[in-house]
Amino acid sequence: MNSSPVLISPTELQALMSAMPTVVIDTRDADAYAAGHIPGAINMREIFTYLATSTAEGLQALKATFAAAFGAAGLSGAETAIFYEDALNSGYGQSCRGYYLLTWLGYPKVKVVNGGFSAWTACALPVSVAPATPQPAVFPSLATTDVMLTKEQVQAALGTDVVLLDVRDIDEWTGESSSPYGKDFAPRKGRLPGAKWIEWYRFMKPSAQGPQIKSALEVQAECATAGIATDDTIYLYCFKGARASNTFLALKQAGFSDVRMYFGSWNEWSRDDALPIETAPPVMASKPAPLAMAA
């Protein structure tokens, strides 16, 4: 895989589009795309909406679905794929989900617009309302990379040194809600046993062009607050692998060497009653009272 930086600024993207073969993919809904998008961008909402399972059949369907979709969008292996959403803090990590999927599929050249479409417009760059007409290609048949976890692999990691990192919103972590789609969208509320928590928003910071992924040192500092080091084995999850994709990108750019994601995430885990969950309020145990000093 290409080790160059994944995040790209709007002005860097404009230069890249002029110099190299590119396929720009807009992950927003159809109405937002129709109202204005980066010129030449292709709308692929299913990047965000597809709900995956981690069974062998589910992963094969995921691979087939997106190999076909990316081929139809014009990705042959020669082009750089660039994903964007409206803003990195408002689209639940959808553009990063595209990056994660292509990383899993072994695609060699992938970028994400840091700041999204909001950053593009903040730079006063051109906007189009014309639908793009992609030139279909044959998506390359490549070996998948070892970034995708099954529920069995996650279950096997419970109680080990593997860091299970939950990056969902706080109401999901505390068990007040089961998902971003509604409090009772999934059948169970809670979290994976022993999981640590860093809300996905914490890996971003404000800028003049909107929220952007933090620097490597800042991302490392956020992880340090939860006792997570760059050489830990980290298993990420959220609800369906979008917010965790945002975190996956942030951690990989920050030098975390062993990061994988449970893409089925809470949407799959919560629907299997045989899988354990934690439901108690996530509070720290009281510290023991200090020993009384002898008179």
Uncertain residue segments: none
* Main beta-sheet strand count, sense and barrel state: 5 strands, parallel
Q: Can you identify the CATH superfamily of the largest domain?
A: Rhodanese-like domain
Task: Count the domains.
Answer: 2
What structural class should be given to the helix and strand makeup?
alpha/beta
C-alpha end-to-end distance = 67 Å
| Relative helix content | 25-40%
Measured by DSSP, the beta-strand proportion falls in 5-15%
How large is the radius of gyration? 20 Å
* H and E order: EHEHEHHEHEHHEHEEEHEHEH
Q: Main sheet: which strands, in order across?
A: 1-5-4-2-3
Shape: globular
Would you write up a description of this structure?
By secondary structure, the chain is of the alpha/beta class. The chain has two domains: 7-122, Rhodanese-like domain (Oxidized Rhodanese, domain 1, 3-Layer(aba) Sandwich), CATH 3.40.250; 151-269, 3-Layer(aba) Sandwich (Oxidized Rhodanese, domain 1), CATH 3.40.250.10. The chain contains eleven helices and eleven strands. The strands form three sheets. Strands 1-5-4-2-3 form a five-stranded parallel beta sheet. The chain has a four-stranded parallel beta sheet with strand order 7-6-10-11, covered by helices on one side. A two-stranded antiparallel ribbon has the order 8-9. Helix 5 crosses helix 10 (243-253). The longest helix is centred in the N-terminal third of the chain and has 18 residues, at 56-73. The N and C termini lie far apart (67 Å). The mean pLDDT is 94.
